[in-house]
Description:
Elements: H1 4-27, E1 33-37, E2 45-52, E3 55-59, H2 66-75, E4 81-85, E5 96-99, E6 131-134, E7 159-163, E8 176-183, E9 186-189, H3 197-206, E10 211-212, H4 217-226, E11 234-237, E12 249-253, E13 269-273, H5 284-289, E14 297-300, E15 307-314, E16 317-321, H6 328-337, E17 343-347, E18 359-365, E19 377-379, E20 392-395, E21 406-410, E22 416-425, E23 428-434, H7 441-450, E24 455-460, E25 475-477, E26 511-515, E27 521-523, H8 525-531, E28 533-538, H9 543-547, E29 563-568, E30 571-575, E31 591-593, E32 598-600, E33 606-611, E34 617-623, E35 632-633, E36 655-659, E37 667-669, E38 676-684, E39 699-706, E40 711-718, H10 724-729
Parallel strand pairs: 3-5, 16-18, 23-25
Antiparallel strand pairs: 1-2, 2-3, 2-6, 4-6, 7-8, 8-9, 8-13, 10-13, 11-12, 14-15, 15-16, 15-20, 17-20, 18-19, 21-22, 22-23, 22-26, 24-26, 27-30, 28-29, 29-37, 30-36, 31-32, 33-34, 33-38, 35-36, 38-39, 39-40
Amino acid sequence: MLHPVSIHCLLSILLCMWALCHAQSDSSTPVIQLRLAGEKRKHYEGRVEVYYNGEWGTVCDDDFSIYAAQVVCRQLGYLDAVSWHPSSKYGRGEGRIWLDNVHCSGRESSLAQCESNGFGVSDCKHTEDVGVVCSQKRIPGFRFINTLANSTANVQVEDIRIRATYSHRKRIPITEGFVEVKDGGKWRQICNEGWTEMNTRVVCGMYGFPGEKGYNTRAYKLLAKRRRKNYWGHSVNCTGNEAELSDCKLGREVELKGNRTCEQGMPVVISCIPGRAFAPSVSAGFRKAYRVEQPLVRLRGGAMIGEGRVEVLKNGEWGTVCDDNWNIRAATVVCRELGFGSAKEALTGGQLGQGIGPVHMNEVECSGFEKSLTECFFNRDVLGCSHEEDAAVRCNVPAMGFHTRLRLSGGRNPYEGRVEVLGERNGSLVWGTVCSDSWGTMEAMVVCRQLGLGFASNAFQETWYWQGDSSADAVVMSGVRCSGTELTLDQCLHHGKHIHCPRGGGRFAAGVSCTETAPDLVLNAQVVEQTTYLEDRPMYALQCAQEENCLSSSAKGADTNSYRRLLRFSSQIHNNGRSDFRPRAGHQSWIWHECHRHFHSMEVFTHYDLLSLNGTKVAEGHKASFCLEDTYCDEGIQKTYVCANFGSQGITVGCWDTYRHDIDCQWIDVTDVKPGDYIFQVVINPNYEVAESDYTNNIMKCRCRYDGNRIWTYNCHIGGSLSSETEETFPGLLTNQLSHR
């Protein structure tokens, strides 16, 4: 029988042996650091890179799984993994391929704990580098520990904010205050020792501001003395062209001594300059900061403010940018040039719709500090670049709180409902409805943009089926008329405090439904120009056209043996958008026309006008959508809409509908027009009956000369503007653009 003391000694020995083995087991797992790298990515996705043995390397995609991706994402401080991508989606890495044939259960705390061939044992190439997409949410309380001796790790924190002082807190947007990071579940200040202007530039860019400026240092020093401090244990080292603070490197580690980690300095303070659209006032200082020329870059086709296809003005003509080498640096130059912050995404492959006209730039390379995209290096040879490769951006924009002043109520999903606004009534702010008189697609577009819900798919003038909150039944806004470019509904024209709503609110309150994608119709100007001619046609052959009001008013009562002179042409209308173009009215409400034996699914689909040089209309035509269908489609795209056998009508993305020159009503009746110089104008979807991602390309204008017997049509342009040569010849023409209603 063992003595109790012996038993105690034995237990102690066994415990020590277990602890030693456990320690050896832990020490046998190599200490590694991870980061996400590569181009064309968001901060929570990228190529997986491993720091081991003093060197960064990659991971092979052989046997990689979602479980391995989960381990990677959690090790980086994200809650979970969304997906993973093989075959170097985020570009090829450099150096060693540290891990191959990685097998994880998903429960490991480090990728080094997963089974693999061993560090550096791989038969892969960098074409097999694996990438991951993590969830955007960070792990609460996650604290990043830098294990690298040379401090080349990226900044990793749960969150970052600009904490405004009490006097600045009510300003929108918040442009100035202390910079704080959330680390280990607590908000902490950053010591300003070693903080640079480049660091400030990056943080301002993250919050939607294109630039930074000075601030009252003395006031913040006095304020900092009175505040309790809790400093973060690291410094930050940014080059200034990073899109996110997480792209910056960790600087030296600050020695933690309670709250006395910044004895020679104070907490970091930044002050940012907002872009034009977000400036709180037009003070002299603001005007001085923005004494710049009109940008040579614009965004088109985006649903939200600060996103869209990148277009560049060159020789008086707008064109697109090819996505070869398109990256976050070039995208950030575009965003800052237009008064936004840094870029959130650099999009490729025409993801925000395809442009028209020339491709002006290819293989763009920017340092990130250029004032304009046109200052970046680029290849002028764009051979092989099509609009399928159009580059686009999504920019960081300031938090303006627009969504807090508006809401949708009663809808079947978050994308639809009765529009309710926060308005003043009897001296207090209350939720109320919007009068639906004059409510249309443009107004609905502004609502959807303000709420961050994309484009409008429908504007409703009756919402009795969406009752919503009965306390918000009172009408607080009426007479709303929007151009479509406003950021908020209250920026549109409206009656103000003098509410006038003849039908009242209730069942006639305004409503919307929103969608993330929209169609975009573009007329082929070259086809119009090449097919224009005159035809004299007898009235007896135009009876159906007369019934459908396709002739001028002078044709009423005309003798059946008389002739009408018609300006005829073909039109080819392409859907360049991201969703199909469908008539707003349902099939059950389409109008049957017995004479032509077809349905009209839209009251007016196209306007055809002949204008004098000062913009006065001298002759007109119109096209009801007697048949919207996929006449032809791009290679690889199947036709969806066919009018035969009373089928569904519309235009599929990548397809076009062709109205031939010999079809009834495909003309302008010019019988009463005198010889001279004119402007030939075509406007698609003129009443905005169907929502589109871009209305600026719905208009085509051509120069036109008529000598009484023949007609010449030339220099046709999409977008409502002709070339500088045309403007010199026809002064004032460019102001006669497509206008709302």
